[in-house]
Design goal:
about 100 residues, mainly alpha
Length: about 100
């Protein structure tokens, strides 16, 4: 039974979107995303690639992904607990296991 509806999944979706933004940096854009003519891209070849964020911003994005992943674990585990799927002991055990399993990006 779900207590929070889709809230945990909204949190993890946001974390995945930020991670995706990090992952595509410096890679070629898909053709569908190119709106200018060939001459423009000859003049501005960097526009063929996804933007690469400054290192400090990348680190903040990584921090955000980790924080959102933690928030997801808490929301998901509390959802199971408040929905009656977990008791106090299993809630605490699973919460610890899942938080310990998170790997910084």
């Amino acid at each position: 039974m779900s207590h929070f509806d889709s809230t945990p999944y909204s949190i993890i979706w946001l974390a995945e979107e930020i991670q995706h933004e990090l992952d595509i940096q410096g890679t070629e854009k898909e053709e569908i995303e190119l709106f200018c003519d060939r001459e423009y891209y000859e003049k501005y070849p960097e526009e063929l690639l996804y933007y690469t964020h400054p290192e400090e911003i990348q680190q903040k994005m990584k921090d955000a992904v980790m924080a959102l992943n933690k928030a997801y674990v808490y929301a998901q585990r509390l959802d199971k607990y408040l929905g009656g799927d977990d008791g106090p002991e299993s809630f605490l055990k699973r919460l610890k296991e899942e938080l310990d399993g998170l790997v910084p990006g």
